[in-house]
Amino acid sequence: MKKTRLLSISALALASSLALSGCTALVVGATAVGISAATDTRSVGTQLDDQTIEVRVITALQTDDRFDESRIQVVSFNRSVLLLGQVGNSSLRDLASHVVRNTKGVDRVHNELKVAPVISFGQISKDTYITSKIKAKFVADDVIKASDIKVVTEGGEVALMGIVSRDVAQQAIEIARNINGVTRVIDAFDAK
């Protein structure tokens, strides 16, 4: 606990000093890695690789005007990329997969994009609440180590990522499935 607190304070101090010097983009990455590195089971190198992959994919999608009317969440965990959100047609869904597959460092793609209208702010708020409820249940569970599992919710669909045993994965899926508002659970786990 002391190590986590010290690391958090150090990251905050680094963020503050860098923000004053105008390096805001660096601050976000440095702070996020500093705080998550203390509890994440992946190596710091893998965490940085995942962040780099996310930035590359997001940049590629944002610079392509065809995605202007889309909402796409990009999550990389252990070099597996998960795409969640809404696009205007199946061609855009396929194009997003192509962009991810051609991104340096990506091993697997989980394309869960829906051909549908972009969800409302109200739904985004509900999704945030669902994610927090699932994470709280994971923290309270005796079998699951909450820091081993990444939870992402989009349109009531919950995606679970992490490197866990099959038993832990099944327990996590069952917990998520039983949270009010969850319409589907996506198993994007890597086997341990």
Automatic annotation (TrEMBL):
Name of this chain's protein: Osmotically-inducible protein OsmY, contains BON domain
Gene3D superfamilies xref list: 3.30.1340.30
Positions of the BON domain: 49-117, 126-192
PROSITE patterns: BON (PS50914), PROKAR_LIPOPROTEIN (PS51257)
Keyword set includes Signal: yes
Signal peptide (UniProt feature, chain positions): 1-21
Keywords for the protein's UniProt record, in alphabetical order: Signal
InterPro entries per record: BON_dom, Lipoprotein_DolP, Transpt-assoc_nodulatn_dom_bac
SMART domains listed in its UniProt record: BON
